[in-house]
Structure formats: structure tokens, C-alpha cells
Amino acid sequence: MFTFLGGIILLIIGYFTYGKFVEKVFGVKEARTTPAYTHKDDVDYLPMNTKKNSLIQLLNIAGVGPIFGPIMGALYGPVAFIWIVVGCIFAGAVHDYLTGMISIRNRGAHLPELAGKFLGKFMKHVVNAFAILLLLLVGTVFVTSPADLLYNLMDGWMGLGIILGVIFLYYVLATILPIDKIIGRFYPIFGLLLLISAVGVGVRLIWTGAPIPELTLQNMHPGHAPIFPLLFLTISCGALSGFHATQTPIISRTTEREGQGRKIFYGMMIAEGIIAMIWAAAAMSLFDGYSGLNDMLANGGPAGIVSKASTLMLGSVGGTLAILGVIILPITSGDTAFRSARMIIADYFNLSQRKIMSRLWIAIPMFVISFALTKIDFTLLWRYFSWANQSTAVIALWVGAMYLFIAKKNYWIAIIPGIFMTMATMTYIFNAGIGFGLSLNVSYVIGAVITVAITVIFFIAANKARAKEVPLEEDISGWNSVA
After folding, report:
1. 81 domain-assigned
2. Is residue 473 in a domain?
3. Per the structure, how many domains does the chain have?
4. Each residue of 50-82: pLDDT tens digit?
5. CA–CA distance, 414 with 411 (Å, rounded to integer)
6. Residues whose CB is less than 8 angstroms from the CB of residue 428 and which lie 6 or more positions away in sequence, other chains included
7. What is the per-residue pLDDT across 164-177, written as a single tens digit (0 to 9) for each?
8. Rg (CA), the chain
């Protein structure tokens, strides 16, 4: 219990200390007009207040990742708490803040465009492909997982196909309609369910004195699976997630002032970390140890654990509300995953999105592909999602490092987590069955060599970019103050 509570306290302290430090390093310009005003189109670009933006950002980034990931990561034992806390404060929240703020400085640009500007034109095409792949995987995963939960909650009286159809219909509307029509209007209600589920389970864990394992040298990692790199790919959302780099530009286009960025981007990642801590603790303590947890995962998957834990902690009524809150999480990330994909494709081909037919021409093929992907095994999809997700996070961290290097600011806040996750991701893809299937020791060596090479290439390119004085932000000289 002390490890669990201490981790949550550290996350909160991290927001007020390291979050403030990162904000100072970046250098907020309160007088600079944001894209919500300079590019206002009343579809994707329009100003919304901090409270609404924060809630939308939290729901955008907090899909099933900070629940399903920590539940599966709980098999590694209390060491999972370390990664959630340290990863969230020093990697995930930094990643989200830099991505959001650099986007604000560049007309709300998405990651492919930022990668093209700061890492070279070739990277724009690479990252564009990665981002679209990731978002389609996310959208698909976040269709199937809430559909399964709803199907179980209703004891199968509504067919799974019908549930999938209803969710897809909602996703189509959320993807093509102006952001304030559905997302901006209904997310506050969804947010209430999210808070009920997370806080309710967390309070009950504390109140009932659940046997949450403490972090000790003997108990740190009770399993046999290698912590590195598997833990850092299993628990992504809640610690560090490249998916967030695809979501923050949605809100960078609706942010009123740069000073709101720390609460919206850094703060909401901290909130997601707390959600991850709660579900990791629940998974570790409610199923008769790790063997019981492993059996539950084998029989019902993460969705089954969510249903069981919610009912155990909150009873039938409270458990149902908690499950609904968990169902909301992936839905409110799936809709913005498709919306983000639509925006990225539009930016890549320079297509105006003012007319609804222009949005439909992009959205419909995406949904056809996603529906086909729902026929693939969820576990396989999750493995590919984890790899694509953390690869995108690595790219976003290198973009942030390049921006800060050119600006002659403390780029180490992005480079250190960037190097670490580059090594983890490269090792994983060479070792994993979905990758090259090499031995772990060989994968370590190859991962290390590639990481060193990427780091050297970065510094060479960064010095050239600094010498060329690559512009860090869009010229808005015609705008002198916030409208």
C-alpha cells in the first residue's frame, strides 16, 4: 500500500516541480497568438477554455492503454509502479508537453509535419505512414475492446456486431463533425464516468486494505519474463505513449494561450499515470497473486479483469458505473484517433477540411480498413500497436530534442528518454516474434548499436540545423495579441 500511495504522491509532486521546470525550459510566450485564432475555421481550429481542453485531452489520450497495459504489466510485479511513475514524469508528460507546445508554435501541425521540419523531409513521409498505421490500429483496438466490455455487461442480449456498428457510427460522426459539436459537448459527461470509475476503484483499494504488494528487492519482479524491453512496451499509455503525439495537435488547435499548456498537456498525462497506478494495483491485489492474475488474463483477458475488479470493489451498481467509465475511455480515444488520422491525411495532401464532403472522402476508406482489422485477433493487434506506439513516441521525443537543441535550450529533457526508448523499441522488434525473433542477447547488441548510431546522426543533423537557423515557429507577425 505504501508503494502505491507513494507513487501517486510522487506523480502529483512531479507535476508541480518537474512540470514547472519543463515549462520554463520551453519558454512560454503568453502574448503569442495561438492557432485557435490565427487559423480559425470552426471545424478543427477554434478556441475552447482550459477546463474543456484539459478534459478532452485526458479522454483523448486515456484509452484502454492506461488500464489494459498496467493490468498486463502487473504480471511483472511492483517494478511496474516504478516505470509508471518515473516514465510518466520524466518521459510521457515531457513527450506530451513538447509535442503540444511545438505544435502550437507551428499552426497546430501534426507529428509528420513536425518531423519533416525538424528531422528532414524523408522523415515526414516515414512518420506519416507510422502515424496512420498507429491511428488505424488504435481506432480498431478501441472499437473491439469497448464492444467486448459492453457485450459482457449486457450478458450478450445485444449482438456484438450491432454494438460494433453503433460504435463505428459514433466514430464517423465524431470524425467529420466540428470538434465542438460532439467531442466538446459530450466529453464532460464522459469525464464524470471516468472519474467515478478510477477514483471509486482507487478509494476502495485503500479503504479495504487490499494486499497491494510493496516494492522490495525480493518482490520487485516475481516473474521470469525479461523486464527490458517487454515492460516498457507492455505499459505504454500511463507512462509513455506515442499515440499521445497524434492527439495533442487536436487540442493545440483549440488552446487559447500558451500558458495553459502545462495543465492541458503535462498535467493530463500525470492524471493518466494515476489511473494506470490504480489499475496496476487492482490487478496485483485482487486475484490471489500473480498466478491468479495470469489465469484471469488467459480466460477473460484485460476486459474480464476490469469487469471482475469493478464488481468486487464497488458492488453491482457501482461496478456497472465503473465499467461504463472504462468503456468510455477507449471510445473517447478511438473517435479522436480517426479524427486525428483524417487531419494528418488532409495536412499531408494539403486538402481543405471546411466542407463535410472533403472530410468524408478521407474518413470512409479509413473506416472500411478498420472494420477489416476487427477480424484480426485482439492480442496480435495489441502487440503491433505496442511496437508502433512506442516507435512513434521515440520519433516525437527526437523532434522535441531537435527543437530544443536549435533553440539552444536544455535538450537533455527529451534526449535522455528518447535514447532509452529507442534502445527498448529496437531491442523489442529484433527479439519479438512479430519482428525478427532473434535471441534477447543478440537483440540487446543490435539495439545498442542502432541507438548509438541514431544518437550520433541526431547530433550531426542538429548542429547543421542550428547553423542553418531552421525556423522554430510559424511567422505570425500580423498578429500581436490574443483575439
Report:
1. yes
2. no
3. 1
4. 988 998 888 888 766 778 788 888 888 899 999
5. 6
6. 229, 230, 233, 387, 390, 435, 443
7. 888 888 888 988 98
8. 21
